[in-house]
Fold:
Amino acid sequence: MCGIVGYIGARRAEDVLLDGLRRLEYRGYDSAGKATVQGEAIHVVKTPGKVVHLTEALARTPAPGSVGIAHTRWATHGEPNQANAHPHLDCRGELAIVHNGIIENYDRLKRGLIERGHAFRSDTDTEVVAHLIEEYAAKLPLEEAFLAALRDVVGTFGIAVVSRREPRKLYAARRGSPLVVGVGVNGEYFLGSDPAALIPYTRDVVYLGDDEAVVLTDEGMETFSFDRTRIQKQREQINWTVDEIERGRFPHFMLKEMTEQPSVIVNSTRGRLDVDNGLAKLGGLKDVDDRLRKIERLSLVACGSAYLAAMVGEYMLEEYAEIPTETELGSEYRYRKPILDPGREAVIAVSQSGETADTLGALREAKEKGALTLGIVNAVGSTITRETDAGVYLHAGPEIAVASTKGFVGQLSVFALLTVLLGRQRRMSQATGSRIAAELAALPAKIERILAQSDRIKALAKKYANAQSMLYLGRKYNAPVALEGALKLKEIAYIHAEGYAAGEMKHGPIALLDPSFPVLAIATKDSIYEKVKSNLEEAKARRAPVIALTNEGNDELVRIADDVIFVPRTIEMLAPILNVIPLQLFAYHMAVARGYDPDKPRNLAKSVTVE
Ligand code: M6R
Structure:
């Protein structure tokens, strides 16, 4: 989704801005632009398409200045063309603005501004803010005008503004759309909608909260609320390295991140597993331990892959911790007037980025209704981590590829830990706790064995690369994994794929099957294996090509299926962690075989910060 970068200091702003934009490319966007200020002049350059086009345009017309803002736009209001790209200017070109989020009342504001003589150059919602500030700035100092305009706006924003009236100042503010200030050495400041933009320059950061604004100058930074009350902010340290956000020897981030999955299990369980005593220790939940012991119901809220990980979590928590659990889409939960039982219910927001607007909306709904709120999040310091009562980090490291892979596996690992924690607080035996813990600890080596099959899966992908549609089947713990496999294929290979709980096939999708409609069935040896095997036979009887995913040593599916992928065995509740990996690899190799860039799928954004 949209990205913001800002800079004030002694360097050439353009270099820092372009570098930052490149680091935000993974978020998905369709145009880019920048504004730098020097003396009385604002230099704006914007281009449709990729940052490389902006770079080329800037090479032709380099602009001076050591203060500036830049943006990658993911179109919401208006086509992805040059006019709609950010930054946007006011009528007189006095100020330039970049914006992430949606101004919900832009239509009404725009009509009023036009009546009062403002001329608009774009179809965006963002441009109204530039004109609003302009209008207030006719009577007020710029800082007050900026805040007054923000008070008029309904919706979500991360916003940054530079002006030739105050050429050595950078204004920024947030409501619902993340912004982080990087504090550099020698009085320079960086601004980013994602810490990835700042990491090469500083690890010292200040996260802006909702309804907070900041003014960055050569003298320092000041943070305040929209009514101008000063706010003291804490500096925090980012602990990722530049290597973690760079691709290194890998052709794509997605491949790099899939390859990192053994260490995701190691890192997400480090210091948290006590195999001998069958316990899980989650420091982030220590403060709410008493409340957790009283919980009688759990709601898991999430979107996309995180939602599917939560569905697996629901199976784990109900079977082993014996807590009634419901998984809900954030986008539905927030509007469906959920009935909560505060005191006895916890709501867990599951999100890799910690910024997904719908998940955040659901979390706020739960908070308002008085539930204990928890987060299962990867991105340290993200909004969800700051708005929940307590939470557990994945420690999976930054996930750059739009398609979530290691984030999903990290979420499953944390759900397993949470299941042991809550289960042992209730009726789970030490032996069961120890068995789960020992199996979790054994997963990294097993994941390595699956990753070693990448070339075989690549060959399989070549065979199926021309498929128009696919059906993914799985049951019980693996039903959500089938959905995740289908989601991955849709997202990056642009193949229509249906994910189904295998038992449902005969209730509808079986009608689709014919020799051109491959079926991928997860049929690992578990309590429901024989049933899935029957579904697989049913698909074969309709002459659908069948790819079976089963356990090493189970050769009986070779007879039924056209192709078989073998994975190591583990206990049923942890099988999704292994079974999803060949599906990720398959989608990745399908995308590459079809000539697509899996890291930058069309129309998608990494972190969906608008509704
Ligand atoms: O950052 P989140 O986990 O909250 O993101 C949720 C979804 O937007 C995300 O999982 C999306 O479905 C991915 N593109 C899946 O690969």
DSSP finds 19 helices and 26 strands in the chain.
